[in-house]
Design a protein that fits this description.
- The protein contains seven helices and ten strands.
- It has one domain: P-loop containing nucleotide triphosphate hydrolases (Rossmann fold), CATH 3.40.50.300.
- About 35% of the residues lie in helices and about 30% in strands.
- β4 and β5 form a beta hairpin.
- By secondary structure, the protein is α/β, with parallel strands linked by helices.
- The strands form two sheets. It has a six-stranded mixed β-sheet with strand order 6-7-8-3-9-10, sandwiched between helices. A four-stranded antiparallel β-sheet has the order 2-1-4-5, covered by helices on one side.
- It is globular, with a radius of gyration of 18 Å.
- The structure holds adenosine-5'-diphosphate (ADP) and magnesium ion (MG).
- The site of adenosine-5'-diphosphate (ADP) has 12 residues, from β1, β2 and α1.
Length: about 230
């Protein structure tokens, strides 16, 4: 599903260049539930942004679903993102003046699905995550854990093959964090590949495979047998 070979990435700020990814090799098969774990500044978000075709890389190769992702136009990148990928962020990124149903239905709006149909589908996805009674709530009327469940429903409503989640539990208490991880696990069991970035050991433990990133290099890959 995902194949990365020899990927390097530097950031230029003024005269300075910061070498962030220093030769990443990574294979992720369809249906895997993996975490990318490392301390702050190790390059996790940089790697996830490349996987999400949100940023370019300087050297190496990235294949997503057998397509080489390289120097892609924004239009083409957007098409691959919409067709293949779903995103979940630490800060939820919900639209504050739209209710839960409208937030979840948004990707379908862009696909031209009629309002009645997309709202019905959105409610179905909310119900799946225990939020059937919160469809009319605005984001500020939801707890952090509920907001993240809305965001996950929005990410999967367009049936992506891969979910990319950057610190999805970073703004949540322990109980809500585990609920969110349980939901990601459930989605994974339905066949969606899940990649979770985290700096928390207990969160990484809940995935099947932990990719340990340190200073822009993969230092270890650990398989969690107990899950
Ligand atoms: P992590 O997600 O593991 O905390 P990041 O991938 O966000 O790490 O960042 C890795 C390094 O790259 C950090 O030193 C960060 O300050 C730097 N960095 C990240 N994004 C940019 C950017 N757009 N421009 C310049 N430097 C950046
Ligand atoms: Mg980060």
């Amino acid at each position: 599903m995902i194949s990365i070979k020899g990927v390097h990435k530097s950031y230029q700020t003024g005269q300075n260049s910061l070498h962030v990814l220093k030769g990443i090799d990574l294979e992720i098969q369809q249906g895997e539930f993996v975490s990318i774990m490392g301390s702050s500044g190790s390059g996790k978000s940089t790697l996830l942004n490349i996987l999400g075709i949100l940023d370019n890389y300087d050297a190496g190769e990235y294949h997503l679903d057998n397509t080489l992702i390289q120097n892609m136009s924004e239009k083409k990148a957007a098409r691959y993102r919409n067709d293949t990928l779903g995103f979940v962020f630490q800060s939820f990124n919900l639209i504050s003046f739209k209710n839960a149903i409208e937030n979840v239905a948004l990707p379908l709006y862009y696909q031209g699905v009629k309002r009645k149909k997309r709202n019905a589908m959105a409610l179905e996805y909310l119900a799946k995550f225990g939020l059937q009674d919160h469809g009319e709530h605005l984001p500020n009327q939801l707890s952090g854990g509920q907001k993240q469940r809305v965001a996950i429903a929005r990410a999967i409503i367009s049936k992506p093959k891969v979910i990319l989640a950057d610190e999805p539990t970073g703004a949540l208490d322990t109980t809500s964090s585990y609920e969110v991880m349980e939901i990601l696990k459930k989605i994974n069991q339905e066949g969606i590949t899940i990649i979770v970035v985290t700096h928390e050991h207990d969160i990484a433990e809940m995935t099947d495979k932990v990719i340990k990133l340190r200073d822009g290099i993969i230092e270890d890959i650990v398989i969690n047998k107990k899950n």
